[in-house]
Amino acid sequence: MEPQILDEKTYKLIGCVYYGNPFHSAKEWSTNNEIGNTWKRFGVLCHKYGSFLDKIRAGNEMGYEIHIEPMDYSKEHKFHIFVGFEVINFEFLPLEMFIKILPKTKYLFFTSSYQNQGKECDYIFSQWLPDSDYEQSYPFIMQSYSPERFDPLDDQNPDNLIDWYIPIIEKSEGD
């Protein structure tokens, strides 16, 4: 797992949202928690509006999962979850879906195994980023799931891989 620095990019996505403690109904990394339920809702809508969505979809990822920390996260332990996919435009938007435009920024990109994602992500935040010339530019992280490397019907598959995107900026002089 060697991270790469990706060029600046603005992501335009459509999908479903959740706000709150996503682990109140089931533990982390469970398909039965609120994140898993958001993915299920997104899948139903993709099936319902598939012919329209296929015309505006960018890329082949099954989807992106974005965790956005609001300013009161450390106090409330609630955050925003956005599940969706990248689009080339917003010509059609199902009423039940939402638009998310992520700010233009560089990204720290790395791939982790699904089973070790917590450990590998902890390494990035506790060691790699502090020891690098970069810091997080916005309070969110994004994961993507490639159909070639992730089987959503077998989330215990040891070969499942997740791509991570952490928005970054170079540290200021004197930090």
Report the span from N to C terminus. Answer: 27 Å
The total domain count is 1
Q: Which structural class matches the secondary elements?
A: alpha+beta
* CATH-defined architecture: Alpha-Beta Barrel
- The CATH topology: Multidrug-efflux Transporter 1 Regulator Bmrr, Chain A
What is the approximate shape? Answer: globular
**What helical percentage do the residues reach?**
10-25%
Classified in CATH, the superfamily is Regulatory factor, effector binding domain
How many distinct helices? 4
Biggest beta sheet summary: 9 strands, antiparallel
Mean pLDDT: 87
Assign the CATH class: Alpha Beta
Low-pLDDT parts are none
Radius of gyration of CA atoms, rounded to a whole number: 16 Å
Beta-strand residue percentage:
25-35%
Number of strands: 9
Strand and helix order: EEHHEHEEEHEEE
Brief write-up:
This protein has 175 residues and is an alpha+beta fold. Helix content is 23%, strand content 35%. The chain has one domain: Multidrug-efflux Transporter 1 Regulator Bmrr, Chain A (Alpha-Beta Barrel).
Outline the structure in words.
The chain is an alpha+beta fold and 175 residues long. It has a single domain, classed as Multidrug-efflux Transporter 1 Regulator Bmrr, Chain A. 23% of the residues lie in helices and 35% in strands. It has helices spanning 34-48, 50-56, 73-76, 117-131; strands at residues 4-9, 12-20, 63-68, 79-86, 98-101, 105-113, 134-136, 140-145, 161-170. Strands 1, 2, 3, 4, 5, 6, 7, 8 and 9 form a 9-stranded antiparallel β-sheet that branches. The longest helix is centred in the first third of the chain and has 15 residues, at 34-48. The radius of gyration is 16 Å and the shape is globular. The protein starts with a strand and ends in a 5-residue tail after the last strand. The model has no long low-confidence stretch (mean pLDDT 87).
